[in-house]
Design a protein that fits this description.
Elements lengths: L25 E3 L6 E3 L2 E3 L2 H8 L7 E8 L4 H9 L2 E4 L2 E4 L4 E5 L19 E8 L6 H8 L4 E9 L2 E2 L18 H8 L1
Parallel strand pairs: 2-9
Antiparallel strand pairs: 1-3, 4-8, 4-9, 5-6, 7-8, 9-10
Keywords: Isomerase
Protein name: Pseudouridine synthase
Family: Belongs to the pseudouridine synthase RsuA family.
């Protein structure tokens, strides 16, 4: 599902969700058709601006399955920042937090990622303070490990883990209560 309400080709959009959203709801940040995970939708223009404004550099963490066995050197490169291409122009990413993690317990992906029996995969946690187009995929490719699966785990202090540490089902909608909104401003 695309993280937008307007149609684009044959992809499902938020308008196809089983949940009915108010007309003034806006997605904060985008997930492309090949990515999954946490998506914030809000009608709070101040919050939307705070989270979308690049100078605010709010954190977002991704769990990334890559092709190959990631080395410490690759994690150090990702942490220091790497050169990627954005619209044909070279761009140096800001320093990030990158480290190897055990395979997280996630819902099955549909469609599943490509599987190659003779090529290992590994998982990274990658925390960014910027959001360029397809940045995570470009970063892992720049250090020699193409992204196979990309899951946005958190935005600021909000993560996909519920209070018991469980992962929601694909398509679940959580309403953030007014008492919780302050966490976005911390």
């Amino acid at each position: 599902m695309l993280s937008q309400f307007t149609r684009e080709g044959d992809h499902a959009t938020l308008a196809d969700s089983d949940f009915t959203f108010a007309k003034d709801i806006y997605p904060v940040g985008r997930l492309d058709a090949d990515s999954e995970g946490l998506l914030l939708l809000t009608n709070d223009n101040y919050l939307k601006t705070k989270l979308l404004e690049p100078r605010n550099k709010h954190t977002r963490t991704y769990f990334v399955q890559v092709e190959g066995q990631v080395s410490e050197e690759a994690c150090e490169q990702l942490s220091a920042g790497v050169d990627i291409s954005i619209n044909g122009k070279s761009y140096r990413t800001l320093p990030a937090k990158a480290h190897l993690i055990a395979e997280p317990v996630l819902p099955e992906r549909n469609p599943p990622i490509r599987f190659r029996q003779n090529i290992p995969t590994s998982w990274l946690s990658l925390t960014l303070r910027e959001g360029k187009n397809r940045q995570v995929r470009r970063m892992t490719a720049a250090v020699g490990f193409p992204t196979l699966r990309l899951v946005r785990w958190s935005i600021g202090k909000f993560s996909l883990a519920d209070k018991n540490g469980n992962f929601p089902n694909n398509g679940d909608v959580w309403e953030v209560m007014p008492s919780e909104v302050g966490r976005f401003y911390e």
